[in-house]
Amino acid sequence: MSDAHVHPVQPAWKKNALIDNETYLKWYADSVGDPDKFWDEHGKRIDWFKPYTKVKNASFEGDVSIKWYEDGLTNVAYNCIDRHLERRGDQTAIIWEGDDPSDDKTVTYKELYEHVCRFANVLKKHGVKKGDRVTIYMPMVLEAAYAMFACARIGAVHSVVFGGFSPDALAGRITDCKSNFVITADEGLRAGKRIPLKDNTDKAIEIAAKDGIKVDKVIVTRRTGGKIDWVEGRDFWLHEEAASVEPACEPEHMRAEDPLFILYTSGSTGKPKGVLHTTGGYLVYVSMTHQYVFDYHDGDIYWCTADVGWVTGHSYILYGPLANGATTLMFEGVPNYPTPSRMWEVVDKHKVNIFYTAPTAIRALRGVGDEWVEKTSRKSLRILGSVGEPINPEAWEWYFNVVGEQRCPVIDTWWQTETGGIMIAPLPGAIDLKAGSATLPFFGIIPELLDGDGNIIEGEGSGNLCMRQAWPGMTRTVFGDHERYVQTYFSTYKGKYFSGDGCRRDADGYYWITGRVDDVINVSGHRMGTAEVESALVAHDKVAEAAVVGYPHDIKGQGIYCYVTLAEGVAANDDLRKELIAHVRHEIGAIATPDKIQFAPGLPKTRSAKIMRRILRKIAEDEFSALGDTSTLADPSVVDDLIANRQNKR
Ligand code: WT7
Questions:
Q1: Where exactly are the structural domains of the chain?
Q2: Which residues contact 277 (CB under 8 A, 6 or more apart)?
Q3: Where in this protein does the record say N6-acetyllysine is found (predicted)?
């Protein structure tokens, strides 16, 4: 390997590794050579009430139908909790680290069992049945984990909505999956600031009611004790309810293809989609990837810094690690509170061995100076993970050199909400690293690169990243809209799963993700549809038209750049800019906060009125000398104004 930034597997990484290079190659060949046999063997890593006899039944053609282990019966909560009780009932299952550094708790597997059973009985008492959708809008507190497992235990389908989303966004998600139950907290706490979750829930329920969805029950966990409104007969305190029910609850015997959860994610068009994940294959896949990608050994302390509102929190804070009997850390706070040493202090405090975070956090912490890292020990760290967006080699090297002191492999994991689990990543004892590359596929994964004409690119080259065959963790449908599922993922290239990402394969067969090729942007590792921000902007009565694009941002990866055409007679000024920014935050949530707003009298459109985003992207990047052909524009002169008033001059 000749590239710069190559880091060969170190002897220490190999020493006790679960998978060495030879094993990786052999297992990989087996997994793609005879998937049925491979996944039959590995399906047994979880416990089944009734064993499966069929392993794989999947087609990417026609209507697209994906089934794994379809005649097996199991339960996710049973696998993540009950089956560990005998051997590790007194082991810590979850370490909870609060927003305030003096606030922490641990929960053993035994305690987790009781909390989850009680919560499950509370749900049952309030009428939640197998198959019902339960919306969870929670801060990063233990009760969020209890709630998710309680749903899994009784066969209810959870839809976790990130606590940073607005009442409108929450209402949209409640309505889309027709959820009559909401679990929330009085308030959340982040960096010392209170987030009015119950208040937002009340508002969302009102909005949903206008769309014909009635929320019958709201279970509220007390986090801050802040003042909230209360609807008698609808709202119930979790602690009161949990005290009045039995401490044991039999797990439902679920079919492998019964839904486990819905998670909303942004696409290039329309409203966020409810990505649906099912039970058996998902758990096999996330537990297996958690074990091998992080070279997880019994007794390791594992910390993934994500929020349970995202898929990373589902798969790699809770389901994967707990299926493996791990000790997983749940962090309520943020990386720079009270100081930029917080992450490393938490590592030292809880002796974290495996640490998994996002490039945006790495870049932000790198930016404030090495001294915040260097004053901590970090000697417990063995593995460093990265997820959510491409990690630039500079950030990678800093993570490796400064945080890990060149002792810990940096494991860059590429995957998506839809893939359920990690797809491309180096296994620590097996695969040489290259800074900036997610390296090689996991077992059973066959990435393919396709060009615009649908030709498969063999060997070195770039193209759109697709998957040739099904894997157990993948999404099965878009909730309530299978047609949209087929359309979004399987119609660009017939018979293949299309990820929406561009990618390069180098001479060593390593994969380098280059980012989205559609109108989705990635802001601090969070996926945002430009169409969603546009529709929030045009919902403002002073806005006539809007076009939104991403541009490179030093910390966030991509920033949100908005071109706004104002309504007749409205004056453009800084106050209006602030008003529009506040409006978008209000409509969607803080993660959609526009970074730049450019007032544009006209947008570049073709004669058929299609906005030419290529031009808008270039101007946002301050690369206007390379605009390409503008002769097909209906009015080429708008471009001059756009360039003259660009907001990103370097
Ligand atoms: C999109 C998926 C995976 C869970 C968190 C995000 C980008 C994700 C990487 C990576 C380069 C990455 C892709 C992907 N992405 N991980 N390691 N290297 N890009 O899940 O919200 O579904 O977003 O995030 O563009 O398509 P998500």
A1: 107-255, 524-645
A2: 259, 260, 261, 262, 263, 420, 473, 475, 476
A3: 610
